[in-house]
Structure formats: structure tokens, C-alpha cells
Amino acid sequence: MSSLSGETAGGVGARRTRPAGRRREFNGRTALTMLAFLAPAFVFVLVFTYYPLLVGGQMAFRQWSLWDLTSTPFIGWGNFQTLMADPAFTRVMWNSVIWVVGSLVPQFIIGFLIALALRKKFRFRGLYQAVVFYPWAVSGFLIGILFRWMFNSEFGVVNDLLMRFGIVEAPVPWLADPDLALVAVIVANVWYGVTFFSIMILAALQSVPDELYEAAALDGAGRARMLFQITIPTIRTTLVLTVLLRVIWIFNFPDIIYAMTGGGPADQTQIATTWMIKFTQQGEYGLASALGFITMGVLVVFTGLYLALLTREKKS
Amino acid sequence: MINRDPKWLTGLRILGLGVWMIITLFPLYWILLTSLKPANQIAEYPVRYWPREFSLENYASLFNKSQFGSYLLNSIVVSAAAGVVGTAIALLSAYVLSRFTFRGKGAVMLAFLVTQMIPAFIALGPLYQMFTNLGLVDSRFGLVLIYIAMTIPFSSIMLRGFFDNVPDSLEEAAMVDGCSRFGALWRVIVPVMTPGIIATFIFNFVNCWNELFLAVTLINTDSHKTIPTALNGFISSFNIEWGPMSAAAVLTILPTMVLFAFASRWIVAGLTQGATKG
């Protein structure tokens, strides 16, 4: 399709009296059309996304309360100091890291395996994908509700299955036990996130030319060698970017925890974003905003380090 | 395609895919099953994997005890309106991003991408204040406005991927024949891109349908609530009634699931094309 479009576009251009080409078409009228086409999108995004973000930026340095919007005194770094002094702060940051790593690694491995299994065409592959990719259409909040029901300690199906298979002897209070609650929310998130990895990796796998494998097979390479010396290096860029996007996304993803435990028991499943929700619900917009900036800072530093390490590794 | 897999590997592949399908579908099966159990059999333990009898009483009590009909209607109207307008606006901006090179184009793309990484909670307070000043708190129209803004960046990127696959020559020919640029876009390109546009619309519709935190912050009146807002109210109450709750979950999940299954092929194509060309 792309070669076809190139030829015909050249053909039309050549027939014109004026020399065509996008750069020269760029007259006043075209510029005006472009502006008119972009304007609605711009207005909406500026007014409803960037403007509130800017105001939110100031908010981090003010004392706010939902109940009195008229008086918002400037308190400098006060909100940041309040957060750091909170005994929950370390717990929350540490939970956020466990949440991200504990969700990401299994998602990546299972997603990769499923993508590999789906690479070869088979009958009903399209149907299989349409069915298995459905969690994508469901909100994280509802996924949280589904898993909250399944992990219910009194009549939850998870306990029932574990007992039928003889793995545990008595019902386990998954969401009430501080040590187990984090495991339960991570299990739900792993289940939810595998789909995204399989989609992205599958799309990338389909761009690896078969000739590479055929040549390797002639050289007598085994399957494991093909995986590590052909497949993974070829789709490296996709893997790197998908992991980066997922880290940011999982970090900023409170929905499942919010619906399953609300951050409890005793802040054991509280991550940075669920903590922000808690502050927002209490009308503490200043604290929520300050916490938002701290987490954005953490993500920026992480992204910088991650990309820097990768470029260094590539050079050496 | 090389096809020299040993039998054990093919077997392992099929087994793995089968197991994963069961793991994926089980929660859906479970919530559907719960919603169809008579109220007095929901809290049975050990649980039953096939109920003794089926009943629609959870659905009945959902509609009787709450205004679920209005939540459903609100969600449909709000998501459809925001989906249509958002997709239309994104169509225009995606067209410009696909067809022209101009100074500042990179900045526009970046501004769109960054919106995807902003934690929503920084903007919630200011939005609430802004909506108070505009008299839009508790208004479904206000919610539509915000959802339009929410859908525009990503659907612009997605639609751009689809535009890149339509040859320039199509609209150039139409413009030589006397169409305006908008006329060419509307009469020539839109018909060719219909699958992509529908996929984008469905993607936007599903996102608005599932949106929770903006709706919770901005909507108070019960009859104005969308489904996620109402569900949030159900789980905040101390004792969740799991029967009606499962019925509500099923009614929330099934419509978007069907839409998504219908359009998933195009959505995935649009996402991967739009994202990789960023």
C-alpha cells in the first residue's frame, strides 16, 4: 500500500501546473485551514487539561479545603513537609515500588509467552484474540470489584479453589490480612495487564522477517538461541518502550487497589495514587497536588535513568 | 512461514493458550454466575460452580432499589455524545498531523502525549473550582465537555495512524476537481476511513463509559450519576450487596465487551500504527 501511495502521489503532483510538494503548498490559505482544523482540539485540551494542571501546580503550595474555596493561603513548602513528616509516607512509597515491580515482571513474562504462542496463524486465532483480550474493555475499577468478590474471605471462590486442591486448609482472609492484601491486589493487576503486553509484543513479533529464522535454522541454531539472538534483539525497541510506558502507567493506576481495599488495611496497600484519592476525598487538594508532583518527579527521574542506562549499554 | 515445530511444542502452545483462556474468562463467568444466583444462594460455602437454579431477582432488585435505569441512560448519552464530538474534533487535528509538516508539529504531538501521563488527581481540584464558577458542577453537559477533552489527544494519535495509510492522491484529486479541503476530507477520505473512525469512536466510548474519578468529583445528584459513579456509591457503603452488585457489573461490562470485540482488530492496528510513528 505504501509503495502505491508514493507512485500515485508523484503522478498527481507531476501533472499539476504549479510544482506541488507539501512545503510549497504552504500558503496563507492552507495555513488558515490548518489552524481552523487544529483549533477545537487545542481549545479543549488547553482549557480542560493544561489550565487545571497549571492551577494544580499552584495548589501544591497553598492550603486548600473543599469546604472553603475562597481562602487558600500560600504556605510555601508546607504541604511537602506535611507529607514527608507523615509516618505513612515511607510505607506508601515502598508499596508503590512493590506494586510496580510485582505487577510488571509477571505481566511481561506471561504476555511475552502468549504473544509467542499466538505468533503462528491457526484457525480461530482472531476469535481467540477477541475473546482473551476482553479485559481491555473493562475499567480497572470494575476489575477491582470482580476480584474483591473472588477474594472475599467468607464465600470467595479463590479460597474455595485453594481448599479443594488442598493448598490451604482454612479460608484465608486475603483482603483483611495486612501481609496478604498486597499480594491479592497484585494478582488482580497481573491478570489485568497481561493483555496489553501480548498485544504490543505480538504486533512487534509480526515485524520480524521469517528469513532470519530460516537462516538461523540452516546454521543449526536451536529454539532458545533463536529467541535470545534473533527475536529479542529485533523487537528490543518495542520491549524497552512498552516496559517504560507500563512502569509509568502502573505507578499512576489506583483503580484496582481503590476498589479492592481502598488502600487498607492500615495503609498496607496504599500506593501514591490511592493516597492522592484519599486526600482529594478529604478535600485536601493541596496535599494531593503536592503528592502528585512528588510522584511525577519520581517518574521523570526514573525515565531519565532508564533511558540513560539503555543508551550507555547500547554504546558499549 | 517455517513450520517445523516438534509435536510437544505445539501441544505445549495449545495447552498454554487454553489455560490462559480459562484464567481470563473465569472472573467474567464468576460475576455472571453470581448475578444469576438467587439471593439466598449467593453466600453459600463451599461455593457452587453451577447453581441449583437461575434467577433474575438480582437484576430486578438492582432496578427497583436504585435508579439504575437512569444511570444506564446517563452513561449511554454522555459516552456517545463525548465519543462522537471527540472523534470528530480529533479527526480534524489528526488530518493536519498526518498531512502537513510544519514548525511546532513535534510540540503538538508532545503536548498530546504528555496529557496521558498527568496524574488526574492534580487537576481534579482546579476542575472542580472551575466548574463551580461556570455553574457546571453536577451537570451532565459539563461531564461531556471534560470527556471530549479527555478523548482528543489519544484519538488524534490513533486516527493519524489511519490517515497515514490513505494515499494523499485521493484528496488531491478531489481538490483538483474543485472540492475545498474540508469537502475533500468529508466526501472522499471519511468514507475510505470508516473502519478506523468507528474503531476510534468505540475506543472513546468505552473510555468514557469506564471513567470514574472525574464523574465522582463532579456529579452529586443521584439521577445525574453515570454507572461507575453509582457503583462507587455501592462499594463505599459498608455492606456490599453482592447480588445486585454483580448484576450491575455484568450490565456494565457486557455492552463494552461486545463493542470492543467487534472493533478490536482495527483498534489494535490504529494504536500500534499511531504509537510507533510518533
Q: How would you sum up this structure, described in words?
A:
The complex is a heterodimer of chains A (316) and B (278). Chain A is mostly helical. Helices cover 71% and strands 0% of the residues of chain A. Chain A has helices at 2-15, 28-59, 78-85, 88-119, 125-132, 140-150, 157-164, 178-205, 210-218, 223-234, 236-251, 255-260, 272-281, 285-315. Chain B is 75% helix and 0% strand. Chain B has helices at 7-36, 57-65, 68-99, 105-115, 120-134, 140-163, 169-176, 181-192, 194-210, 213-218, 227-236, 242-276. Chain B starts with 6 loop residues before the first helix and ends with a helix. The interface between A and B is large, with 100 and 98 residues.
Number of strands of chain B: 0
Q: What is the number of strand segments of chain A?
A: 0
Helical content of chain B stands at over 70%
User: How would a crystallographer describe the biggest sheet of chain B?
Assistant: none
Spatial separation of the terminal alpha carbons of chain A: 39 Å
Order of helices and strands of chain A: HHHHHHHHHHHHHH
Largest sheet of chain A: none
Beginning-to-end CA distance, first to last residue of chain B: 30 Å
Radius of gyration of chain A: 26 Å
Averaged pLDDT of chain B: 89
The shape of chain B is globular
Q: Please state roughly what percent of the residues of chain B sit in beta strands, choosing from under 5%, 5-15%, 15-25%, 25-35%, 35-45% or over 45%.
A: under 5%
Radius of gyration of chain B: 23 Å
Helix- and strand-based class of chain B?
mainly alpha
- Which parts of chain A are unreliable, with pLDDT below 50 for 5 consecutive residues or more? 1-24
- The percentage helix of chain A is over 70%
Please write the string of helix (H) and strand (E) elements of chain B.
Answer: HHHHHHHHHHHH
Count, helices of chain B: 12
> What is the SS-derived class of chain A?
mainly alpha
Regarding quaternary structure, what we see is: heterodimer
Q: In percent, how much strand structure appears in the residues of chain A?
A: under 5%
